[in-house]
Amino acid sequence: MVDAVVSFALDRLANFLIDEANFLGRVRQEVQWLKDELERMQCYIASAEERQNEDPIVRKWLNDITKIAYDAEDVIDKFIIQVHHEERKPIGCFPSMFSCMTWWEKVNMAEEVVNLHDIGKDIEELKIRINDLTRIRELYQLESSRIKGEGNSSNSLARLTQLRRTTSFSFEEKVVGHDDGTSRLLAKLFDPEPRRFVVSIYGMGGLGKTTLAGKLYHHLDVKRNFDCHAWVCVSQDYNTHDLLLRIISSFGFTAKKTEELQHMSDEDLERYLNGNLQGHSYLLVIDDIWKKEAWESIKRAFPDCNNRSRVIITTRSQVVAEDLDERPYVHKLRFLTFDESWQLFCEKAFGNPNANSVEEQLKTLGMEMVQKCGGLPLAIIVLGGLLSNKTQLAKWKAVRDHIWQNLKKDNIHIPNLFALSCNDLKYQLKLCFLYLSLFPEDFEIDVDQLIRLWVAEGFVQQDENQEMEDVAKDNFHELINRSLIQVGRISWGRVATCRVHDLLRELAIEKSRELNLLHIYDQIKHSTGNSSVISSCRREALYSPKENCLWLQQSNPRLRSLLSFDPYGYNLDIMTKITNMYTEFRFIRVLKLDGFFIYSRTLSEEIGKLIHLKYLGLRESYVSHLPRSIINLRRLQTLDLFTIGMEVELPNEISKLPELRHLFGMFDRNLEIDSLTKLQSLKYVSGQSWISINTEKLGNLRELWIYGSVQTTNEFCFDSIAKLERLEQLAVKLDYNDCFTSLQPLTRCSNLKDLRLYGKIEKLPEEIHNVLPNLECLSLEDSYLEDDPMPLLEKLPSLMILYLGFKFYSGKNLFCSAHGFRRLEILKLDVKDELEEWQVEEEAMPRLRGLSIPEDSSLRIPERFRSIPPPADCDFEEHWFGISSRSHAFGCAFGCVLCNFSFR
């Protein structure tokens, strides 16, 4: 993981050389030298990381290069602060003249006065340290990773790979759970289809993919149905020649001697294997495949003789599982249920599937620990084995109190689970994953917020063809595909929350602490760590800090991120500490203090000193005003000031923040945001505020939520929205007496995918399918449509999710034609007595898989729809102002604007 830290520093140095070219002057060459040397060092990091467990000197070498990478980043940020200070300082005796200059004129003048002595001195010190590292590298002969081949490493990870090769298909007779999956997979293996095809099993490391594949491989019916069988395990740095040799050996094709086969080319080995398989039905298991190229490199050797041959692959990657063949059968391995987990634990800990004769206190502790394993078989098996020879209650409690540390010590697979999963990730993805360890255990992580945090942290590479948020989303989905992240709540067809399995989180925390990447303050679990390390780590998370916590007693001038997850975030001492330390937090990029009550309702002017700040999160902090010094935060990307019932008044200086991309709060005053050309998200703006904005300049806006009355005519016009050609999500909730005018202007919003309208609509446009051709999600509520909307809505070519809420239609009957709703997957009709009958012709809605209608509704529906279950993977709640509209209590203590809406 050291490579991720160094690569991140290199990116910053490269950008620094470009962005600060006007200021660097004579030290430019020194900065370039520093970048070049770190790049050279990077070539040896992979080899060093493989040896660090066996060699403390190598481990120290890695630790030293990590510190140099961090210190290089500090030099950059300190220089930027100096430049910022000089560019804002009045020159000579003419402060009034300086204040009249343009920003660029100030920058040019600042160039002449920036003191380059400090940065030159800092780099000289780094040069001495780097030269020492070079000498040590040469002395201990750290080879470059570029010349390292498969099997050259002697570390524990390589030994584990070899262990997997030799024991992968050892048969375990008692396999707990997955009976349902086994039945489906066996049926697929015996499918009468003659063509050879691939059966893919994928899931997180430790879920039992190899065990399940072994159960299939050794099944008696499988043995009888295939003429020949082979099993091979594929390493991440596989060698095609070696892979073919091992497959030939596993099949038992030994007509040629081993020495003769070893001297054959890859093409000759393929031909030899292909010839031996001709006319035979075969089963090949490729265990633990990481890249589809591994299969592509050997698949020519496996003939398709139309005799029902099969290939089973196991992988951690969803993409590999789905793309390995033209039409693979993909099986996602699930986590065990608690009952299955308990049965497996009892088998390993007590030697039988139940614990009737076990002491009650041990049983209670065992259940608590099994619950912590989260259905991961590897963790349960190791836990059961660890406790199988312990009978004393005190020893069970000791394991319970430090469960992950005990499991890591007891089994070679546990500590390497993380390494195997992350080895070949690009460095941005490594940092993105390690970042997740900042979030508390079992925490439901908001995906949109996570995306914004990753971007602010600098973990997302700039792409000419994509917004950074889109690149971050790609990274997120890649981590899901690799089974490193678990999907949480699905909302309107998109992943709304995610989580990380406790074991992976624990391993990520351990690695992050090694890299001095983060520290977690948890008063409940007694935060630990060397004070010198804590005071220099890059990121800190507050879980439950109290008045006397260690964090209040020390400062960390190198801090880049401070995130609070304290559910009781009103701690005045901590908030005072933070607001009094703005000067010490000069390098900070992310300040997320959601829930910290700010009594003054405004931030200190000192906030303007945090010029590196990119993310300022003060959700539910009751901030209603910002100081004018906000103008100094020219790198700010996300500003989240939302508090239920609290309107926010922004100073005009907000218009001077050129990088602002996401703005959240309740804004009911004039908003000076016309110049924010990079703005992508705006939540939540009142109708009156919206009409005062020159929307033509907000060309990058992608997400917009508007509430309340727009103008005295009581009509909402979409003309201003039509100028937002990149808009993807639009939600508008009108006051009770207001209504929408024609939706026709939305024709220009060709990217609109999600539309949610709450208010009266006189009539839907006849050509709605041309107005909204790319719309995927639609919500209508309180629409009071007079005509049946189905004949028009069913023509929307891209519609997949449809929510028709309370009073969407004032008629009694709905009708869907045979060719309607061709792509609709999920439908919710939130109706009770107002509708009587819904007629649907036979061929309508061919893809419908989720249907939700109130249980007490009297609506008559077609018989074939009665068996369609409610969608389990789609949350229909409307989270206006950050909360579910329907769960909000009327007459709340805050005088919330929600209470004036017609939610039911």
TrEMBL record:
Residues 580-853 form the Disease resistance R13L4/SHOC-2-like LRR domain. The keyword Nucleotide-binding applies. This is AAA+ ATPase domain-containing protein. One of its GO terms (molecular function) is ADP binding. Keywords: Nucleotide-binding, Plant defense, Repeat. GO terms for biological process: defense response to other organism. Residues 438-508 form the Disease resistance protein winged helix domain. The keyword Repeat applies.
